[in-house]
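Entry 12.
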Amino acid sequence: MLRRHEIKGFRDIPNIGPAIERNLIALGLNTPDDLIGKDPYQMYADLCAVTQKRHDPCVIDVFISAVRYMEGGPVRKWWEFTEERKQHYGVL
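Predicted 3D structure (tokens):
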């Protein structure tokens, strides 16, 4: 696994594959460092607006995992953020 300072591409971030990479680019992000300070929930809303379709809510979980990782958090599976997302939206 690359160290955080060695990450140059989105797919170097844990949980990011080709589809999420395309989503991040669609949001106008250019580098992994662009994720630092972003609001994953707003990213999801923006993605739905840009693509004019509703994406699976698990995309939010992946966005949370990527933002947190780039901000210095530990590597965690994307689904470990599902409960946080559900609480954010008031769904248990």
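Annotation: The chain has a mean pLDDT of 94. The chain has one domain: 8-88.
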